[in-house]
Amino acid sequence: MPLLRYRTGDIAVRLPYERCACGRTFSKTSRVKGRIAQMITVGDVRVFPSDVEEVIHAVPELTGEYQIVLREAGVQQALEVRAEYGEGASDLDALGSGLQRTFQERIGAKSRFELVPRGSMPPGIRVKAQRIVKA
Fold it and tell me: Which of 3, 34, 45, 88 has its CA 20 to 30 A from that of 15?
C-alpha cells in the first residue's frame, strides 16, 4: 500500500503509468523537488534550492557550497547566489557569466552569482535552513 502524505507542502510530479515487472500496479511519483515554503519566485519562474544545487554541482571548479541571498520579500528580480570556488578556478569572470548563462538555460530565471574563495562560507552551511539568507 503506498504511503500518501497530505499537507506536507512537498512538490513532486506524478509519473506516467507503467506496469512494473514485479507486478506493482500503483502509480509512481518523482523524487520530492522541494517544499512550497522553500519556493522562491524570480520574475515569473518558481525556483527551489534544489534547482540551484543542480547547477552548482554541475561545475567542477566550484566546491558545491552556496547560499541564496534574498534582498526583499516577495518576487525577486534576479536570484542572487553566493558560491565557493576551489583552487582550480582561474578566470572568475568567465565562470560567473557561465553560471548565469547555465542557470538561465536550465531554470529560465535571471541570476547573479557572487564567487567567493573556499572557506568563506560560515561553518555549518550544509544545513538546509542556512542555504537561504535574508539580507
Answer: 45
Q: Considering only the C-alpha atoms of the chain, give the largest distance between any 2 of them, rounded to a whole number of Å.
A: 53
Residue 67: closest CA among 2, 135, 130 = 130
- Beta bridge partners, 66, equal 83
Task: Quote the distance between the C-alpha of residue 67 and its chain's center.
Answer: 10
Convert the pLDDT of each residue in 46-75 to its tens digit: 888 888 988 999 888 898 889 998 887 777
Q: Which residues contact 37 (CB under 8 A, 6 or more apart)?
A: 9
Backbone φ, ψ for residue 56 (5° rounding): -60, -45
* Interatomic CA distance for residues 100 and 48, integer angstroms: 16
